[in-house]
Amino acid sequence: MRRIVVAITGASGSVYGIRALELLATVVDVETHLIMSGPAKTTLEIETDKSVADVEALADHVHGSRDIAASISSGSFRTAGMLVAPCSIKSLSAIANSMSSDLISRTADVTLKERRPLVLMVRETPFHLGHLRLMQRVVETGAVIFPPVPAFYNRPATLDEMVTHSVGRALEHLAIDIGGLDRWHGG
Which of 8, 35, 121, 152 is the S-S candidate for 85 at Cβ 3.0 to 4.6 Å? Predict the structure, then answer.
């Protein structure tokens, strides 16, 4: 069983974390561990028709964002990696600076120190130099910055298709192939 940690922060785009959980639920050998920050719960209610309980029900295990003693906060708890979707600049900053101030940043730090894949779907625009420096720092420590930039070569007809494609591609960096993604085959 591959354990994947999914963290949802307060940045706009909670649908990315939700879709990740939905897609991961279709992969038989994956066990999901969810962390939602307090601001994520607020954003979720503003942006979607889902409740916090609805999203938590999509995960195999749910961890409180302040529970720094949770299993996933330790390197001895083996995971196949972590996806932060969406990743706020606040969370990016905590991760880039090894702050470990909550369970999201602590688990991300553990993921990096154990050399496991960490994928950050950074959700902000435009970026200023401080944001870019944080991204550079976190990439230098081993993370992947994967902003949810839609692909258009697959001619998406709906927002749902765009979200699914972005999340599916991000999950590939965690060695998860959800299948069914349109691929570029050349012109």
Answer: 121
